């Protein structure tokens, strides 16, 4: 059973986790498997998007329009906070 210890700041908020090497070695394969599965899913989505673009099902977006979209969304969030 994994027994983490927590490091807390002056206010009592946890800021870090300390694990034994044995616990880390137990967790590492699970973490690596999850990362690999996430990457595989992202690649599947990317390849599907390429296939859809080639088939004319979706319109490709230029880098410039993508950056403009991100700026617009960021500005909206800023306005919501004001």
Structural description of this entry:
With 82 residues, the chain is mainly α. The chain contains 2 helices and 2 strands. A two-stranded antiparallel ribbon has the order 1-2.
Task: Please tag this protein with its features.
single chain; 82 residues; mainly alpha; two-stranded antiparallel sheet; 2 helices; 2 strands
What is this structure's SSE topology?
Elements: E1 5-8, E2 14-18, H1 21-54, H2 63-81
Antiparallel strand pairs: 1-2
Number of strands: 2
Kindly report the average pLDDT value: 94
Biggest sheet strand line-up: 1-2
The low-confidence parts are none
Give the N-terminus to C-terminus distance in angstroms: 47 Å
> How many helix segments?
2
Which bin fits the share of residues in helices?
55-70%
| Share of β-strand residues | 5-15%
Short description:
With 82 residues, this protein is mainly alpha-helical.
